[in-house]
Amino acid sequence: MILGRSAPAGHVAILDSDRERGEMLARRLRSAGHRVSVIEKGRRVVQSVVESTPDLLIGALTFSDPPLGGVIRAVRQALGSELPALVIVSRDGEDTNSLVEADDILKEPVDPGELDLRVGGLLRAQSERRTLNKKVQELLGLYKVSWAFSLAGGPAGLFGHLARQSADLLKAEKGLVLLFDADRQQMVAQAPGFGLTPEQVSLVRYPVEGEARSRWNFRKNGPLVSNKARADSRLLPDLAAALDLHSVVIAPMIRGPQVHGLLIVADGIRRGPFNDDDLGLLLAVAGQATVAVENQRLHEELKRANELLQEYDRLKSEFVAIVAHDFRRPLMAIRGFAELVLEEPDIPTETREEFMRTVISETEHLAVLADDTLLITRIETGEFEFRWREIDLGPFILESVPMGLSDHSVLMDLPSQFPKIVVDPDRLRQVLTNLTMNAVKYSPQGGSITVRCRERGTDHVAIEVIDHGLGIPQDQIGKLFQKFQRVRTEEHLSISGTGLGLYICRLIVEGHGGQIWVESEVGKGSTFGIVLPMDARAAQTARRAAREGSEPPARPAGTPTVAAAEAETVAPATRPSEEPASEAGPAETE
Ligand code: ADP
């Protein structure tokens, strides 16, 4: 008889005390397409059955050395799985206890047709149970993968987890996540991988253009299974070599039209080649991985934004504390002198006038402080709009730089001819005043101050304010353009100041698309310089367009923010190179 279409052939173990009948049954089953092992009675019965790993056991109830029921129980325990048993019953008086273990019973004499039918049925049920078990295991694996994604471990935690769980699920040695780096147009392996050394992982990065283009296209062609990876022309040879791949399943992580990354599982452990079932499983994981990676990215972004907010908050508190302190000092002076004038009617007129002049100058100081504070806040928050005007730079510098300053002589070094430039005149005047006043303030021994102006290339101008005063120690130059930074030497601190002037200068100059820098030597003097584009309005428009055009925007359109300012001042602001190229710097040498 031929087996029914859906009845699978299997491996049957036969235990029969009657050797001849055992062989007869075996012949019958072999002719129906099954593989058969006839097990000899004796001490090694259980071991022999376990070693033959059958799909079905047929035992005669007469088999008593050892008793059939005990053998079936012991074999099932050793195999750790269900093993169907068909028991052949001959006559009354046999060990009916053994029947408890039977999944089906056949009576002697065994009818061959009946035997085929029962064996087929039991094998089919066994095969279905195994498929079901496998599916349950796979689902459990998927469940484990999907619920164990945690954002707490950061990106490395997530990539390691994905790599390990995917490899476990497919019973493989290696797992790895690759992500697409849109800026560099590269696929980049994410550490850590599973079953791979950090060196191997670090080797895997390849541009998606060029060589990779002529290979497998995961967006168009979908996932890939290869059981001969080293010789597979669809894979990049470098990739297969770097990871020492033999067999591999690769599932793309797709978001919209874009392949966001790849999930790679390679080299099965003691198992056959990878097949479509493996691919199906990995695709399910890749779908979840795409969401998890995206969540992780958003989580990290949120964390960074949060940290930035906290930093803003800290800076704001610090700012308020320092400003409150700086406001208090002149207020106390004003109050003290006013009280003196009120309470001492007999103060000589000259002294009284001196007190009143101090009151006025402290009031002016307060007004400047209030203006500076407001200006900083407005520029930092992007609320400040520059008012662009065309000016004649030469005359503008002459009328802006404060002259006749105490013991200092101010020299003007300006070319005779100057093109017109577009700037915010009030703000540029503020920068020039500040730099010149600083040059005076920090040259207490007097001396000359030079204001020099030159064209830089065809579209920039440079203005320098040079003094021969205290100078600045090298280790403190780097921070001078940040808020509240003052040079911490006795001589500098004995001169009154807030540490806001240079920060404001920098905000204004950068708002013009320019750069500010300083060169200095202690005891010899300092040169503060600015480089501005000749058309600051056009430079601002170009910057805004570039920001809006880039994806994602670098920072909101508008004037520089604190974040930008803080980030860019880590390095000391030094004289910009006179070579062309710098975005804000000069295009050509003088
Ligand atoms: P302020 O002068 O109000 O303290 P600034 O922001 O203008 O604030 O300057 C910051 C610090 O830089 C000053 O406190 C001073 O120590 C140093 N500084 C500025 N200009 C000069 C200069 N021309 N020579 C030496 N040190 C200077």
What report would you give on this structure?
By secondary structure, the protein is α/β, with parallel strands linked by helices. The chain has 17 helices and 18 strands. Strands 8-7-6-11-10-9 form a six-stranded antiparallel β-sheet. Strands 2-1-3-4-5 form a five-stranded parallel β-sheet, with helices on both faces. Helix 3 links the parallel strand 3 and strand 4. The radius of gyration is 43 Å and the shape is elongated. The structure holds adenosine-5'-diphosphate.
Largest sheet: 6 strands, antiparallel
Q: Helicity, in percent?
A: 40-55%
Principal-axis shape: elongated
Strand order of the largest sheet: 8-7-6-11-10-9
Tell me, rounded to a whole number, the average pLDDT. Answer: 84
Distance between the termini: 102 Å
Strand segment count: 18
Stretches where pLDDT is under 50 for at least 5 consecutive residues are 1-5, 550-572, 579-590
Radius of gyration: 43 Å
Name the ligand types. Answer: adenosine-5'-diphosphate
Overview in brief:
Helices cover 45% and strands 19% of the residues.
What tags apply to this protein structure?
590 residues; alpha/beta; five-stranded parallel β-sheet; 18 strands; binds adenosine-5'-diphosphate
